[in-house]
Amino acid sequence: MTEAIDITNLNYRRNTKQILTNVTLQLNPGKIVGLLGENGAGKTTLMRLIAGLAKGEKGTIAVHGQTTAATRRAFVSFSEALQGFRPGDKLSQIRDFYALAYPDFSAKKYLDLITFLQIDDDQKLATLSKGTREKFIIALTLSREAAVYLLDEPFSGIDSMSRKRIISSIIRWKQDSATMVISDHYVSEIAALLDEVVIIKDHTICTHKRSDQIRREFGLGIEAFYESVYEGDISDDQF
Amino acid sequence: MTSFNHLFRVMWRPKFRSMNQLLFFNLLAVVVTMVYQIWRRGFAQLEMISTVTIWGSIFGFVAFVLLARQNEQVVISDTYRLLPTSDTKLYLANLGTSLVALLYVGVIQVILLAVGTAMSGNIIRMWLQLNIHMSAAAWHDLAFYGTSAVLWGIVVALWAWAVITLIHFGTNTISAFLPNVQQRIIKVVLAIILTGVLLRFLTWFAELESKLYAAFTGIASVLEGGVWFDLLGLVVVVIVVATANIVMMHRWVEAKY
Known about the structure:
The complex is a heterodimer.
Chain A (H helix, E strand, L loop, with lengths): L4 E10 L2 E11 L4 E5 L6 H8 L7 E6 L5 H5 L2 E3 L12 H11 L5 H10 L13 H13 L5 E5 L7 H14 L5 E6 L2 H4 L5 E6 L2 E7 H8 L3 H10 L8
Helix pairs in contact in A: 4-5, 5-6
Chain B lengths: L3 H38 L6 H28 L2 H4 L5 H34 L1 H10 L4 H41 L6 H35 L6 H28 L6
């Protein structure tokens, strides 16, 4: 079976600073994976490398067997910050952009999602609150019938009601065969969703485990496990 | 994968919208000037050709600058860099849509000029009446200079946009290998150095091209053939610079976030 994501010996350096070192990671299709790590650990960089946005890496990154950035992008739906649009653009214009640019964009899924997330796409981008903007980004990202979804800190700075709605939409609209990687440092928000956990520490992946394995082997919840790894209570030998 | 056709359309829409906004202000400026002229001198003395030409030149230049800015924003924006397409297609679609948008502004200026002439273009009408019986050779010259002016305009616009991107990408590429301190200052210094190097290279290339033409034909490049040879030289420069941009985009230049 082809892995959804297969990364081998990935090294990434920028501005003379090592950001990722010897990253090797395989993710199977159909899983929801938490990419955890403190601020600046390299979570966003790893996602941007998978999506082909960061350049100059050494090593190989394959998404469903595709190794070039352009072909990988066809399989990946990344939660981008909509920086390419003008503040005066209406959400419906952004929807039209996505519908035209991405062959796997589903107009029905989009409509269901914005209805569920209570978004009026007649509004202008500049008028959205942070929470609504984040919900709209999630709606666009999930509206694609992609094989891999990369959600980069989807809950940062938004209220609990919006968070709950976003989590519900992830559960409801993710296809069974699709892999979803969610990066965050607020673990409690997403712990219940996760099938697997990948922790980035000291510029590399320090552990990759299934959620049930963490509970069974360490007797800990995901949040406690993550904190233990970062505080050094669990040593590398125990992995 | 996103087809070139769809890529072109998604890139064209925002540029078309901003050009229309600009043309609205262009039209407004022409109308306000016309009303002022009528108020000052009366309708009989109204001369629209210079008004349309001056405002057209100003807004044409603004359009060129706006499109250059949009070009640079597109190539470092996540929104566009995430599209499932090759860097070559993305770059060419970006440049192509900007060119079409600039031509669109040009066509609107020609229409405005025609309307202005029809309304009160005494000078142009007199010139046309005097020259309507021009010889075949004179018409040929007119067609030649008209065509070469349009072609030169297109190639110079492409050259300028490609060179701006070259400086932008060159600065980004080099600064990515330097320490992450005082990046803004480093980028400004790099941009100045790169601009200097580029100007020297282009001067050298222009001299080389003149020498080559003289060597092949034995005449200076001021005649008809020379105009086309110079144009061809500039097209070669555009192709080389665009290729360098695509290579940098593919290997080193990241989207900004």
